[in-house]
Give the backbone structure.
Amino acid sequence: MEAWERAADVLGIQADVVIVKQPNQLEGLTAISIPGGESTVIGSLAENSKLLEKLKEGVLNGLPALGTCAGMILLSKKSRDSVVGEKKQPLLGVLDVDVERNHFGRQPDSFERDLSIPVLGEKPYRGVFIRAPIIKQVGQGVEVLAKIEEGIVAVRQANIVATSFHPELSDDPRLHVYFLKQVANV
Amino acid sequence: MVSIIGYPFSERVPEWRNGVGVQGTVLVKRGFAHMLKHGVVMDVTNVEQAQIAEDAGAVAVMVLDKLPYDVRKAGGVARTASLRIIEDVMDHITIPVMAKCRIGHTYEAEVLQAIGVDMIDESEVLTPADDQRHIWKWSFKTPFVNGARSLGEALRRIEEGAAMIRTKGEPGTGNVAEAVKHFRLIKKELADVRALYLEGDYQELMLRAREMQVSLELVVETARLNRLPVVNFAAGGIATPADAAEMMKLGADGIFVGSGIFKSRDPFERARAIVEATSFYDEPEVVAEVQKSVDETKSMEGLDENTMVFKMQERGPN
């Protein structure tokens, strides 16, 4: 939430940041963010409250969505775990990518590093990767925003932006600003 | 997010480089705990229970040899769980796996780190190994969670490197009262230092820091943030969905459930209900609905103070 407020400050706009837990709270949103967490947990809670269904409808109808880490997994069409393999888990299936969960290993292997993200300018962006997933394959119409040796870590597909890392944990507002300005047209 | 970057401790952290990346930074450790927020961590003793926990929506599991309730019953010395069982759990579920080590037992933590657990709980549920010191947690790449009963205790653990705090409560009792007490005390002490900070009374803040035996910088940073600089969960005695919602309402960032689930006779329904109650704690209708799915006659048997042989919360150095 702080990350959004900071981005709104940079853009000089007034933003109401709200937490969405129930389907009716989706009404009237300018954009939605699905942050980090455990994708299995977010997915199953959202499925239960019918939020998942409504959210899918919204994103398909053009609601700008930013998914980070677990959020990226939820948006994806296909996901598998690096150790356990295929796992039945509710997904939105709106982003045409194949994702591998926990690609970099367990928490001791989590890391931060500088990334080159051309749409954010030349200055490197500090990416925080926590038990992070990676994108194995992208479909047509998916623009790659950032890539590292291991694979793709940030993409855009029309109204959707997704990252393996956690922009909400770093103090650099550029990714949120990019999303609000270029994707949500704020 | 500036609040978790870890000022003023960055210099205590060794640099673990891995190619272009850096591992085990304060941000990476505290960020991990951050991702568990509004979730439920469940104690499990084997793969079957871990799978039930994952299916119910647990945000992580904690692997123990015995549930706290059984630790009390068994007596003797409680140690870290069998590594084979922990590894077995890690191979079968996709959510993070935590494990407990004894207070001050640095090498038990080393072996847990070596097999790759996601977080280590330096826990009073096990028999403390050192009556003087806790583990110096900065030297570990794996993040730690520690218990606390007061602001001072929480800050001392953070100063030793804990990336997450939980209230101690009284584990294995099915009685939420001690967790409530500890949480309220931490809140009250936080409000006190916050008021001093807003008044600009640094001299009094310094006296508080001395009383609590922590650095002034950490007290000031905490007062500035108006919260602990790490995620703060509630633990100890949580047995029902309403217990979990109550702790969330008090301001907990999330919940640990120990014996409450697998010592009940409706573990799956209860696990799921506690997850929902934690997430929707601000909607009493939802909590009521999920509380209906558990049966009070199947709740774990409570343990009152008079029949308790020892208090786990009092174990280990202060």
Summary: Confidence is low (pLDDT under 50) at residues 1-5 of chain B. The radius of gyration of chain B is 19 Å. Chain B has 13 helices and ten strands. Residues 22-182+228-289 of chain B form a domain with the TIM Barrel fold (CATH 3.20.20.70).
